[in-house]
């Protein structure tokens, strides 16, 4: 039965991480957030995102770059851990 508790812990960790990322995205300025969401979450191409957002492709690239940097800063400030959790040594 230990397998279920480990799996449950992992699911809880992923759900918590999802909420932290969602809150961090909400903290970004709208122009950066919309570019990051369009490219990484809605998986639009740069050209598609540019058309959707009504800006040139270079602006989408720039906003995505700065949006990711800002997102990382917000996550770091909230003590978000990047990558899988470290495994306890046996």
Characterization of this structure:
- With 90 residues, the protein is mostly helical.
- The protein has a single domain (2-77), classed as Arc Repressor Mutant, subunit A (Orthogonal Bundle).
- It is 74% helix and 0% strand.
- It has helices at 2-27, 30-41, 46-53, 57-77.
Show the helix and strand layout.
Layout: H1 2-27, H2 30-41, H3 46-53, H4 57-77
Helix pairs in contact: 2-4, 3-4
List descriptors.
4 helices, mainly alpha, 90 residues, Arc Repressor Mutant, subunit A, single chain, elongated
> What CATH architecture would you give?
Orthogonal Bundle
Q: What portion of the residues fall into strands of 2 or more residues?
A: under 5%
Mean pLDDT: 86
CA radius of gyration is 17 Å
Short note summarizing the structure:
The protein is mostly helical. The protein has 4 helices and no strands.
């Amino acid at each position: 039965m230990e397998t279920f508790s480990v799996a449950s812990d992992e699911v809880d960790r992923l759900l918590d991480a999802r909420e932290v990322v969602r809150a961090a995205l909400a903290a970004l300025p709208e122009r950066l957030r919309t570019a990051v969401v369009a490219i990484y979450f809605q998986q639009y191409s740069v050209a598609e995102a540019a058309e959707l957002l009504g800006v040139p492709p270079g602006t989408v690239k720039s906003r995505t770059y700065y949006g990711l940097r800002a997102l990382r800063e917000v996550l770091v400030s909230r003590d978000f851990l990047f990558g899988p959790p470290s495994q306890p040594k046996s």
